[in-house]
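Exercise 7. Predict the joint structure of the components listed below.
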Amino acid sequence: MTATTSTGRRRGRGITTGWSALGFISPAVLVVAALLYAPFLYTIFYSFTDYDGLTSPKWVALDNFKRFLDDPALTTSVRNTLFWVVGTTVVPVAIGLLIALLSFGIKGGTLLRLPFMLPYALSGAGLGVIWGFILQSDGAANDLLHLLHLPGADISFLQQSPYNTIAMIVAMTWQQSGVNALLFLVGLQSIPTPPLEAARLDGASGFRMFRHITWPLLAPLTTVVIGLSLVASLKTFDIVWVTTQGGPGRSSETLAVTMYRDAFVSSDYGYGSAVALVLTLVTGAVTVAYLRFQIRGQEKLR
Amino acid sequence: MKRFQLAIAALAAVTLGLTGCGGGGDDSSSGGNATEVKLYNDKGAWKTYFEGVGKLSKEQIGLGVTPVGYTDLPTYEAFIKASFRTNNKPDLFTWSTGGRLKEIVDSGQVADTSDLWKDAIANGDVSEELQPYYTIDGKQYCVPANVSYWVMFYNKKVFSDAGVQPPTSWADLIKTADTLKAKGVAPFYQTSVLFSFVWFQQLLIGTDPQLYNDLATGKAKFTDPKVVAVMQQWKDMEDKGYFSDPGSKDQPEAMLKSGKVAMGLFGTWFNTNMTTQGMKPDSDYGMFVVPNVTPSLPTTTVAFESGPLCSLTKAPNPEASTKFMKWWVQEKAQDQWANSRGDVSANPKVQIKDPSLNQLNKDAGEGKYALANRFFEAMPPPVLTAALDGFGAFMVDPGSYQKQLENIQKASDEYWKSN
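Solution:
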């Protein structure tokens, strides 16, 4: 923008060019403003109000955020969200990496990887429905554990907390590992051969090869995979809503589910917006902090 | 030149903007000669019944019905509420009575139906006992879309296999449950999703109906020793294994049909669910009124619900909406509506074809039962939300009843502080 106007000015007719340019970009700007900026700013505004969706919003300053701090449902919700963050950034990423490493460069690798990719075809809601049936009390999961004489046959996976959150994380792992494997595979393929060959000549192989050569070279991609998982886990909603609706008794809610419930089920749009705002800030802060940390680490490596 | 370019720029912006926004306004409702009303509802599964009524209304008053069904309650409520603030309003919509109706009436958007009620009561199309459910600050709003009594549905084959009969006292019911349990059948259905209040409601209205009403009006506390005692009784029943798994994803009608569960407590609207499962009333399944827990109470209390059909003051075509509602409460419309679904009707003139329903309807009409407004409508919305969660959590961990009651009471305190 500034560049265009300054070069324009030099040509003397700059201001008019600027105006007509503005005219041509304004529809796009308006669309973005109306569809992206306005709802965001509105949500921020609502988070400082008491708004039931029917009468006009009442300004309550920081009340919603104060309420946030001593809401027992929120404590559970934050705890569960942390479970999700830790669970889905560690397990599916690790499994994905393992699948990629083990199947990379061997004959028929694609065929071996294929079954892991298939679950990704499911939507989060579909995942919730299917795993809901598997995990329900006396469902397939219980039957299987019973048959194998394993512990857990009597646990109601979707009813008891924190098993319900853990069970859903397992379902998510089932779906996500394949995609992570795919991403890691792209990373592995993009590693240039010279350093690998040099390492091999120096006698590196197996775990040492991975630890000192492959893993550091894979780092940029690992950053992306973990970063994506981090954001996805913080906003976990669909699978929980479909499988347990956050219940029973709000025991499996995540922050995103709490936000939805407060806003749309309890018609407490002000409070719901406050939860949304906090969730956005947390997601933003965590992502930025993580990326900063990672990139600094990688720069050190160079 | 400069002006010309500015004009071009403005024109470009405006045209592009307009094409972007175009196609939004569709003005299909023009004036008083509408031939269709759009009926928004949260009963997506009842599409054919709405269409059945619509066919009849088309013939009789020249107004057809296009049902717009939702199946997810929160989405539906959010949509209806949002429509109050936009120009895309429904002609008619279903809602619930009680706190939720008051909420939208207070916003000043719901059409007053006081005149319609006066006429309908005078004609004997609606019974006067229903009026309080539809009265807010002395005026009536909406008309009854459905009425239902809460009774116990039971699988007749399971009962006869176990050699038990519909009970006539609470002690009898418990004995029946023991017999069924010993046969390996779960005596009662329960769910922790949405309908988690059902057993609390039944136990409390059968023990102390006044206390139930006082809870609804904030006069009594959920931590009252008598309420605690009801929870302990419920816990005792949970501990004895009388209930089906609260988190089961199976439909209750399917569980009743397969005989996995012997009894389920539902509104009479559940009849529709049973018949669509292919079960025949009176031969495959029956229904009975649950006896009071406290035998010394003079009359048996039955939970009762009535859901409204509403229109808005700023409806697209208020005359058409009113015309339809006037017709809706009459015998012919109600006969079609109630009997196609197999439920009772708000219109006392309607002959109910299902014999046990008809008996129930007659008994209730003659004042054999005391009616208690269903928990869902009786409680203020924030208290209801907390209670549904609390009871759901209780079912998974019955030992936590004290904590759950405290949580519900907290919501109640909060609500009554400002209302």
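Discussion. Chain A touches chain B at residues 16, 19-24, 26-27, 30-31, 52-55, 72-73, 132-133, 136-139, 156, 158-160, 244-245, 247-251, 264-267 (CB under 8 Å).
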